[in-house]
Amino acid sequence: MPALINPSILSADFANLERDLRAIASADYAHVDVMDNHFVPNLTLGLPVFERLAQVSPVPLDAHLMIDDPDRWAPAYAEAGAASVTFHAEAATAPVRLARELRRLGARAGLALRPATPVEPFLDLLGEIDMILVMTVEPGFGGQSFIDGTLPKIRRARQAVGESGLDVWIQVDGGVSRDTIDRAADAGANVFVAGSAVYGAQDVPAEIAALRDLATRHSH
Ligand SMILES: O=C(CO)[C@H](O)[C@H](O)COP(=O)(O)O
Ligand SMILES: [Co+2]
């Protein structure tokens, strides 16, 4: 399975988002963290900004919605042109209905889990989703340290996806860098979000290539 690198624009310059999207043209997707100051204690950007990003981005957008009531708000991100829309399991009231709606609108549907949320209760949803996002930091902020305690959950998700025969991607988000990406890939992740590691690098395209190479060498 190819390793996908999705830089998070949370670490971009918010006054120069179009420029910083162009800087990651060699990436697979641009990861856009939407935070509402309720589900997480931070506020980033919402639909009007996202709609413009979708118009100017050289790569497809991977929306990560850290918001309350995704059942109400998530479909608009698919309508705005997101290639992938990921909502949190802890926030959704009707995850199957929401995932079906996102797919009907042409987006991939992702289900995100906080570090303390087990994957087991959601394994019967595998046929309804395109991706599981295992958060490897507590959602809310960039630049945190990768939590190794999430590795068993990545392994469990990979095992269940393998047994299902379904093509469900496993994304990791938080603290992913050259120092940690091998562990996440070994555990079974195939989509890697990296914010501070990519935008903090001297040479952004070289960092994307290095991360992709490391992940591919450790992928299953
Ligand atoms: O969802 C997120 C935080 O909630 C971000 O995508 C994530 O933290 C990326 O930043 P970094 O790679 O710097 O950890
Ligand atoms: Co994110």
Automatic annotation (TrEMBL):
Binding-site list for a divalent metal cation: 31, 33, 64, 173
PROSITE patterns: RIBUL_P_3_EPIMER_2
EC number: 5.1.3.1
Enzymatic class: isomerase
Source organism superkingdom: Bacteria
InterPro entries given in the database record: Aldolase_TIM, Ribul_P_3_epim, Ribul_P_3_epim-like, RibuloseP-bd_barrel
Binding of substrate, residues: 8, 64, 140-143, 173-175, 195-196
Keyword presence, Iron: no
SUPFAM superfamilies named in the record: Ribulose-phoshate binding barrel
Function according to Swiss-Prot or TrEMBL: Catalyzes the reversible epimerization of D-ribulose 5-phosphate to D-xylulose 5-phosphate.
Protein name (record): Ribulose-phosphate 3-epimerase
The species this protein was found in: Isoptericola peretonis
Gene: rpe
